[in-house]
Amino acid sequence: MMAAMPSQIDIFQEMSALSARMVEAAQQQDWDALVTLEQSVASLRKILMADDDNARLLPHELAQKAALIQRILDDDAEVRRHTEPWMEHVRQFLGQNGQRRRLEKAYGR
């Protein structure tokens, strides 16, 4: 017997739970966990993209879906609040290393 496909609401609930865990990982600067969680969210997103038919949802399910999407977007903003300063630091670090390598190459070091 085949297991039933999860509903859109089930998938959005799982994505919301994962996005909340992503916030925790970002707050703790646990970048490995954050990447793993994002990969899980991306897998769920692919499932949704294949079958995102709102016509099958009841009005209360549409409202629930909208609330879950808003929660996921809020979590995403919070994750970005923690990751963007780190990403800027990495960009500067890599830029300085690239500049140093160019100088070393130019001056034969």
Through-space gap between termini: 68 Å
Shape, principal axes of CA atoms: elongated
The stretches of 5 or more residues where confidence is low (pLDDT under 50) are: none
Per the CATH scheme, the topology name is: Methane Monooxygenase Hydroxylase, Chain G, domain 1
CATH class category: Mainly Alpha
CATH superfamily: Flagellar protein flit
Helical element count? Answer: 3
Return the domain count.
1
What would you say this structure looks like, in words?
By secondary structure, the chain is mainly alpha-helical. It has a single domain, classed as Methane Monooxygenase Hydroxylase, Chain G, domain 1 (Up-down Bundle), CATH 1.20.58.380. Helix content is 81%, strand content 0%. It is built from three helices and no strands. It has helices at residues 8-27, 31-50, 59-106. Helix 1 packs antiparallel against helix 2. It is elongated and about 70 Å long. The mean pLDDT is 87.
